[in-house]
Amino acid sequence: MRDSHYNFAYLDERTKRMIRRAILKAVAIPGYQVPFGSREMPLPYGWGTGGIQVTASVIGPNDVLKVIDQGADDTVNAVNIRRFFQRTTGVLTTERTTEATLIQTRHRIPETPLSERQILVYQVPVPEPLQRLEPREAETRRMHGLAEYGLMHVKLYEDIARYGHIATTYDYPVVVNGRHLMAPSPIPKFDNPKMHMNPALQLFGAGREKRIYAVPPYTKVESLAFDDHPFEVQRWKDACALCGSRDSFLDEVVTDDRGGRMFVCSDTDYCGKRQSGSEEAA
Amino acid sequence: MYVAVKGGERAIRNSHELLAEARRGDAAVPELSLEQIKQQLRLAVDRVMTEGSVYDPDLAALALKQAAGDSVEAIFLLRAFRATLPRLGYTEPLDTSRMRLWRRVSATFKDLPGGQVLGPTYDYTQRLLDFSLEGSSPENSCEEANAHAGPVPRIVDLLNHEGLIETHLPAEGDPDPADLTREPLAFPADRATRLQNLARGDEGFLLAIGYSTQRGYSHTHPFAGEIRYGMLEVEIVPEELGFAIPIGDIALTECQMVNQFAGSKSEPPQFTRGYGLAFGHSERKSMAMALVDRALRAEELGERVEAPAQMQEFVLSHSDSLEASGFVQHLKLPHYVDFQSELELVRKIRAG
Known about the structure:
By secondary structure, chain A is α/β, with parallel strands linked by helices. Chain A has helices at 13-28, 49-58, 76-89, 137-145, 150-163, 192-195, 268-281; strands at residues 34-35, 64-69, 92-93, 102-106, 119-123, 174-176, 180-182, 201-206, 211-215, 221-223, 250-254, 261-265. Chain B has twelve helices and four strands.
């Protein structure tokens, strides 16, 4: 049930309109970071306030919401954000990727392919892919303006010179629509290919840094690489210990104090569906 | 067997209950009232109002109670509440020379019109624990009148009669200042925007950055021109009336730092200024703010930008306690996926 002390989805309508305008601009210029008047939310900065504000601005009473963190619906912060929207919107929530119309995520893209009727909202801690190379925002904005991304290529090249391969494993930089360098948020690079030509609308909210950006449906998203060092994703020797998947991102779980390990899917809905499917088959 | 962190919902509910219990403490001890917090922890209330950007001692006291005395958490609670409030109007600019003063000191002149008024301050106490406060303290009454009546000129205005201190005229057309609570910070930020940011900034952060300017990380040669603490009437002009009406009084602490300035190509040698303003009685905050404000004017005054205190992106992007506290503490959230990726990488590098 919706708590009637608050406006639908917490934010007042004028704030939502301001955020929707930022979203429209973001969709019009894929990968470009649009500054917006981020509000102080009742959750801390760094805990998904950007994603929450984006979700609050696009959610309607008929939406079905799924919230994941690290691919799982039952991690504490995902639970907290889901409860926040249950309380302030009263919408239906689900753990099933296919049932959701709106998915807010931190650090993962679901394994199950998304469709045109879905929106994926990412929580973004650091929207500026160049920040670690150049902390001054006045400078990085200029670099984006001129599409001057040599600094990032040099960084990746130095990785290769030093380690023989690119030593970035998550928040791996991408170029969107052949123009803007973009931080995909700290998803593993395993997930990067899912962003490319995705039928769903992908929205990115960074509350603390006050930026919104977007990848519209069916947009080119290219992970940076070199001709002789093509982009590669992580692969595991093991399969998921619960569902047997060899195609999903696996979390390593420590099982005892003698070095025992097992690998399980990080996407709990995907894993659960496969487990129940195999039980039915058996 | 695999132990997933299942049952997040129930764990969170239990955590809330434990928190409520821990906040209340021993139920046999009488509960704090908001009135007690307002009266007896007034400086904590003032800090929460200042950095929470809301002048409301009742709400600040409530926030402090709910936060179990943690100022930064209380500031967060007040800010989040503030974000939901409608804008009903804008007050007229405050003229701080009209303050009814409780305290006013200047380190630049021994005596001055209006005099030095020490007022309630810890400055001249010996920091000895007062064990008589262990029990209940006797009623105190001070025979001297509390607040000075009538306007007392600001020291910077006295210096100004000689033209020795820079003057700041409003920009052409007196444009409205940006509102940081509605628009994101953009660089370079003008002084009005910077002052807003500093006013909301974390006291500890500003103190440390201000302190760094005294230890050679930028040279601003500050003098405490004046620090004043008192009450001031706030006025608004309702559209339908067309004239100003008072809507209440607020307590403020204002600091005017006066800094040496050797002059530049366009400006004669004169004193420059740094400004600090805080709600309630917040001298440490307003003094630190004034130091940092002056340091951040380096570029405008043609000084070399070398120290952190002079770099506006560095100072303004890291001053907010909500942003800093949130992002530092978000490291408590699960990072299994990123860590897993890094684990694979380190193994690969070591094997390679």
